Amino acid sequence: DAKTTQPPSMDCAEGRAANLPCNHSTISGNEYVYWYRQIHSQGPQYIIHGLKNNETNEMASLIITEDRKSSTLILPHATLRDTAVYYCIAPVYKYIFGTGTRLKVLA
Amino acid sequence: GAVVSQHPSRVICKSGTSVKIECRSLDFQATTMFWYRQFPKQSLMLMATSNEGSKATYEQGVEKDKFLINHASLTLSTLTVTSAHPEDSSFYICSATWGAQETQYFGPGTRLLVL
Residue A1: what pLDDT? Predict the structure, then answer.
């Protein structure tokens, strides 16, 4: 699996966009980038994934750089319920979870 | 869609007893299921991968005789923690997927406390 690195924590004001970065400089050409989040004491929740192109769904947008060495998850209008640990993963057959980014949305 | 359930949600047992945790895919057929363990303030660690009808593949350092995994049907996998000890107390989470896709759908987790 490509090793991913994320900042340990971030704060975001409620209603503002939360931009969560992830570095995956060793990713290979056919490895997707997945984002999950884990709210306290729950199982991880799938958010979005992508390969090369930017992706958007009802939860978030995913921006992948052209060289695919990094990506950014964007929550366009963060709410208090978005407070969670966000994981960026580039799997090959299995998931290796890093430490993720603990996002705290502030009222 | 793609809902995964776990039972029980939490369990307390005495040291030396065995505990079985069930993982079910409710609206799809899971060709592959995964079991993870998460200690407090740590990330998820993959324990094993199981394909329906096959023996599970365990990650390095995970004792297969202690953590018995059965994936007998396309909707059910079980993890049995045999002769549980206090150090086995943890949050156990399963996930499931189908076909060749890599997206995993996670269950809500089972919190095990061994006294």
Answer: 61
